[in-house]
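Section 5: illustrative case.
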C-alpha cells in the first residue's frame, strides 16, 4: 500500500546522515546503519500495519457475528500472531540479539 511505502521510507530515513559531508553513502558506517534500519523498519512496519489492519477489521466495529465467524476470526488472529512473532524472531536473529533476549522461567517477579 501507499501508506506502507511512505511509512517504511520515513522509518528508514529518520537517521539519514547522507547530508553530512563527513558521512557519505560510501562510508562503511553509513551503509551499515542504512542496512540495519532497512531490516528493523521493514519488520516493524509490516508487523505494526498488520496489527492495525486486524484491529480495524475486528475491533473498530461491533457487527453481530455468529459464533462460527468469531472462532474463524480467532484462528486467523492466532495464525497472524505466530507469523508476526516469527518475523520479530527472524529480525532479532539477523541483528544478533537472540542471546540478549532473556526470560525467567518461572516468570521473574
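Designed sequence:
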Amino acid at each position: 500500500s501507499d501508506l506502507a511505502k511512505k511509512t517504511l521510507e520515513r522509518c528508514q530515513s529518520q537517521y539519514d546522515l547522507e547530508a553530512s559531508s563527513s558521512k557519505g553513502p560510501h562510508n562503511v558506517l553509513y551503509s551499515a546503519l542504512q542496512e540495519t534500519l532497512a531490516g528493523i523498519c521493514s519488520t516493524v512496519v509490516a508487523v505494526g500495519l498488520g496489527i492495525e489492519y486486524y484491529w480495524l477489521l475486528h475491533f473498530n466495529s461491533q457487527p453481530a457475528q455468529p459464533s462460527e465467524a468469531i472462532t474463524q476470526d480467532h484462528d486467523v488472529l492466532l495464525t497472524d500472531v505466530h507469523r508476526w512473532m516469527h518475523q520479530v524472531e527472524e529480525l532479532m536473529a539477523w541483528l544478533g540479539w537472540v542471546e540478549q533476549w532473556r526470560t525467567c522461567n518461572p516468570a521473574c517477579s
